[in-house]
User: Fold this.
Amino acid sequence: MPPTTAVAEGKPLVEDATPYHLLFEHGMNGMLFTAPDGSILDANPAACQMVERSREEIIAAGREGLMDGSDSRMAELLADRERTGKAHGELSARRRDGTLFPVEVSSVLFRDSEGHVRSCIIIRDISERKSAEAERERLIRELQETLGRVRTLSGLLPMCAACRKIRDKQDVWHNLESYIRTHTEADFSHGICPDCRQRLYPETIRG
Assistant:
């Protein structure tokens, strides 16, 4: 059974001392009572805190002032609600300073005690969830790019025992350094080890 409503200037739609009133006043999610034409009839404290506006400011703003009307998802959600009597989706809400933020919206149509069509809308701020999803996507992209750049050698490499050249799958022999540069991310710097220095340049070694 929907909550009892009474449209009156400055009077909350949800009557005091009912379970609906307690849910409306103390619920963690934003709740709005609206009319199909976009008028907002009432807003709970959670909705006021979410969009940083008073109840009176929300009512004065209406749907167009509270939500991003240019979002194509708005028309789709309203069409779904008109067709089925309920709708669920993601939209962009607007704070007092005009900044937009992502929200998850659930809306259902009902008739009040006077037979007027009204809607109850529950709004959840999903900014943190969207930020986490974006960060996860960024990390996945970075990982994919990194993996795409990494090339590794595996298996047995045919190597000449004399000159140390590598034979590829096309039976072409390559210099070891050029082969590794081509097939991995490794590169080379050159020096001379003590054994070779002793053998090739003994005059440079002090006693």
The CA atoms of residues 198 and 205 lie 7 Å apart. The chain has seven helices and seven strands.
